[in-house]
Write a structure and sequence with these properties.
Layout: H1 9-39, H2 45-72, H3 81-87, H4 99-127, H5 130-153
Helix pairs in contact: 1-2, 1-3, 1-4, 2-5, 4-5
Length: about 160
């Protein structure tokens, strides 16, 4: 059945392509954060272990919202490691980094998700897609705040 929500098929396609990149970035960041939760060591272990758990739990919920928005706009959501690897801008580290490096990598990952969301906003605005704009705004707020909190751990 055709979708008739006031957004052209062409615009929906552009939006879902951007949302697919956002989904890939978010899932990659989820996986990295969960990995760091399992493998962090050092004097800040308890703080980071709990903080990373809060962050990956939030990301697990977020990826579902993003994928469901892609589906609501009429496209299939990517859902494989291969698809995510080809769409994400986040580079995963080799091995297990030191705790401070984990924090730095997560800051970069959080900021990468913000950039992906922000790049999509003009397309969404032009199409008049307020629900996606709302989703993007919420994601940017969460990731900017999380990046700030992580950066604060590195302050001298």
């Amino acid at each position: 059945m055709d979708i008739d929500i006031g957004i052209t098929r062409k615009d929906r396609k552009k939006i879902t392509e951007g949302l697919s990149r956002l989904l890939a970035d978010s899932y990659t960041l989820y996986l990295m954060t969960h990995n760091f939760h399992w493998n962090v060591t050092g004097p800040m272990f308890n703080t980071l272990h709990l903080m990373f758990e809060t962050q990956y739990t939030e990301l697990a919920l977020a990826v579902d919202l993003i994928a469901e928005r892609i589906r609501a706009l009429g496209e299939p959501a990517p859902g494989t490691y291969g698809a995510f690897a080809s769409l994400t801008r986040i580079k995963e580290p080799e091995g297990v980094p030191a705790a401070d490096d984990m924090i730095r990598l997560l800051v970069k990952g959080q900021e990468a998700v913000v950039k992906t969301a922000r790049e999509l906003m003009p397309v969404v605005d032009k199409a008049g897609d307020e629900p996606t704009a709302d989703l993007l705004t919420q994601r940017m707020q969460v990731h900017e705040k999380t990046a700030w909190m992580l950066r604060s751990l590195l302050a001298a």
